[in-house]
Specification:
The protein is mostly beta strands. It folds into 2 domains: 98 residues, Zona pellucida, ZP-N domain (Immunoglobulin-like, Sandwich), CATH 2.60.40.3210; 148 residues, Zona pellucida, ZP-C domain (Immunoglobulin-like), CATH 2.60.40.4100. It has 1 helix and 18 strands. The chain has a 5-stranded antiparallel beta sheet with strand order 9-10-11-16-15, with no helix packed on it. The longest helix has 4 residues. The termini are far apart. One of its GO terms (biological process) is egg coat formation. One of its GO terms (cellular component) is extracellular matrix.
Length: 291
C-alpha cells in the first residue's frame, strides 16, 4: 500500500495600512517621543514594531480595540545615527514593522529625522586640542598636550596619520618647590577615555620609564629644555584603526639627582645596537638614552 502524506501550510497575510498622520514624532534636544495609533488586528503584533533596535516603551489598547504604541528614547539608544549639518545635529533612524523574526525585510519603513540645536561651545572633534591638566598631592600641577609639528604650540588637530609623529609634551609646575624632574613612568594607548579591566590597550612606556615603542619604530624622547618638562616624540602606530585613541600616562616628579633603576627616561638607541640583540637594556646597558 502506498501512503501519501500531504502537508498543508496556511499562510496568514497581515495587511498594514497607515498614513503619515498616524505617526506623531516629537523631537527634543536629547530624546525623541513617537506615538502611533494602530489598527485592531495589528495590536497582537505591537512588539514587532521597532524604532531602530528598540521595542515600544508602552502599548495602550484603546476601547475601540485599536492600539497606541509609544516610544520614548534618547538619541544614545536604538542605534540612532548622527550627522552634522550647518548649526544642527541631525539624528536619524528608521521606524519599522517586522511581523516575523529574522532577517526578512520589514513590511514598512518610516524614516525618523530629528534636527536639534547644537551648543554654541561645540566644535568639530578633529579640532579638539589634545591638552589637559591635573592636580596631584602636595599641590603639584601636571600638564599634558599634543604639540604641533614645529613644537611651538598646541596642535590644532588631533587626527594623526599612521606613521607620522605626534609630539606629546608633559610638564609639572615648579611653583615654590625645589627644581623637579618630570618622568613619564608609564603610558598606554586605549580606545576609551577611561580605563576599564576589559579595555583594549597598547603599551607605549613600561618598566618605569622605558619607551617600548622605540623598539618597533622611530619613537624617541626629545632632549630636555628643562628638567620639569619632557617631550615624547611618538610615531603613530597601528592600533584602534577607525576609532578614537586615548593616551593615558602616569607622570611622576622627583629630585633631579634621583635617577636610578626605578626613576629613568629611556628609549632604544639603534646607533648602539648589537647585532645579536634587540633588547632594551636597563640603565647600565648600551641602548639607554637618558636625558
Amino acid at each position: 500500500m502506498l501512503t501519501v502524506l500531504h502537508i498543508v501550510v496556511i499562510f496568514s497575510v497581515l495587511f498594514v495600512t497607515f498614513s503619515q498622520e498616524d505617526i506623531q514624532v516629537s523631537c527634543l534636544n536629547n530624546s525623541v517621543s513617537i506615538a502611533w495609533k494602530i489598527q485592531a488586528d495589528l495590536v497582537p503584533f505591537a512588539e514587532r514594531i521597532f524604532l531602530g533596535s528598540c521595542k515600544p516603551s508602552y502599548v495602550d489598547v484603546l476601547p475601540t480595540g485599536e492600539g497606541k504604541v509609544l516610544f520614548d528614547y534618547s538619541y544614545d539608544e536604538c542605534r540612532f545615527t548622527k550627522r552634522i549639518k550647518g548649526k544642527y545635529d541631525v539624528y536619524e533612524n528608521k521606524f519599522t514593522f517586522k511581523p516575523l523574526p529574522g532577517e526578512k525585510p520589514a513590511d514598512f519603513v518610516f524614516p525618523i529625522r530629528c534636527p536639534t540645536n547644537r551648543s554654541d561651545s561645540w566644535f568639530p572633534p578633529f579640532l579638539n586640542p589634545g591638552a589637559g591638566s591635573s592636580e596631584a598631592r602636595g599641590g603639584l600641577v601636571f600638564h599634558m598636550a599634543l604639540l604641533n609639528a614645529e613644537l611651538t604650540g598646541i596642535a590644532k588637530s588631533n587626527i594623526i596619520p599612521l606613521g607620522t609623529f605626534m609630539p606629546i609634551w608633559a610638564s609639572v609646575d615648579q611653583q615654590l618647590h625645589q627644581p623637579l624632574l618630570l618622568l613619564m613612568e608609564e603610558c598606554i594607548a586605549a580606545t576609551t577615555p577611561k580605563l576599564y579591566p576589559a579595555s583594549e590597550v597598547y603599551p607605549v612606556i613600561t618598566n618605569k620609564g622605558c619607551l617600548m615603542e622605540s623598539q618597533r619604530g622611530k619613537s624617541v624622547f626629545l632632549p630636555r629644555y628643562h628638567s620639569s618638562s619632557i617631550i615624547l616624540y611618538l610615531q603613530a602606530f597601528r592600533f584602534g584603526l577607525g576609532q578614537e585613541v586615548y593616551i593615558h600616562c602616569k607622570l611622576v616628579a622627583w629630585d633631579p639627582d634621583s635617577f636610578d633603576q626605578t626613576k629613568k627616561t629611556c628609549h632604544y638607541s639603534k646607533k648602539n645596537e648589537r647585532r645579536d640583540s634587540g633588547e632594551m637594556l636597563n640603565l647600565e646597558g648600551l641602548f639607554m638614552a637618558q636625558f
